[in-house]
Amino acid sequence: MTAAQADLQAEFLEMPEGLRFDRPKVADGAALWHIAKDSGTLDLNSSYSYLLWCRDFAGTSAVARDADGVPVGFVTGYVRPERPGTLLVWQVAVDAAHRGRGLAAALLDGLTARVTEQRTITAVETTITPGNTASERLFTSYARRHGARVEHEVLFEAGQFPDGPHDPEVLYRIGPLSS
Questions:
Q1: Rounded to whole angstroms, how far apart are CA atoms 36 and 166?
Q2: 5 to 1, 64, 93, 114, 141: CA distances (angstroms)
Q3: pLDDT tens by residue, 11-42
Q4: H-state helical runs in the chain
Q5: For labelling, which of 10, 121, 134, 155 has a CA lying 20 to 30 Å from the CA of 172?
């Protein structure tokens, strides 16, 4: 680890007391599915997809574990194949008992730092539905911490979703990252 990476970890990897940052394991898939389901705001994917995510995208995802090793929050992401310097954040969720402690921000910062150790990441993307103020705040504060601009545009219109009424998904592009 370089001195710059150590400084980044010291600045951004501070987890709330009693929690630790980790890579997800397949055995965590069910817990992540439950956290997402209980969030009340995320589009719930199939339980199968969370198992696959923990297997195939563990390197670009993260979990927060309590003292017993139980996942209490997560962030899932992947590196965009056609933009290898862009980390797309798929979902961020925190168990209700652990909200309001900065855990989502710590997970997002920690994940970015870990992925950056393996490859150059110059941007983060995510989609947010209009009115999801918690996610809007999370990602705009992330941009401020990393000295980056935020651009947004509608990625998917409401009418593009085949399974009934769905709000549009707004793409947030954060970059270039200063770290």
A1: 17
A2: 6, 20, 26, 9, 21
A3: 454 889 999 999 999 999 999 999 999 998 89
A4: 3-12, 29-39, 47-56, 103-118, 133-145
A5: 10
- C-alpha 37/C-alpha 47 separation (Å) is 10
Cα–Cα distance measured from residue 157 to residue 103, given in angstroms and rounded to the nearest whole number: 30
pLDDT tens digits, one per residue of 71-124: 999 999 999 999 999 999 999 999 999 999 999 999 999 999 999 999 999 999
Q: How far apart are CA 26 and CA 35, in angstroms?
A: 15
Give me the amino acid identity at 78. Answer: Y
3-state secondary structure at position 160 = helix
Q: Residue 145: how many CB atoms within 10 A of its CB?
A: 17
Cβ atoms 93, 50 nearer than 8 A: no
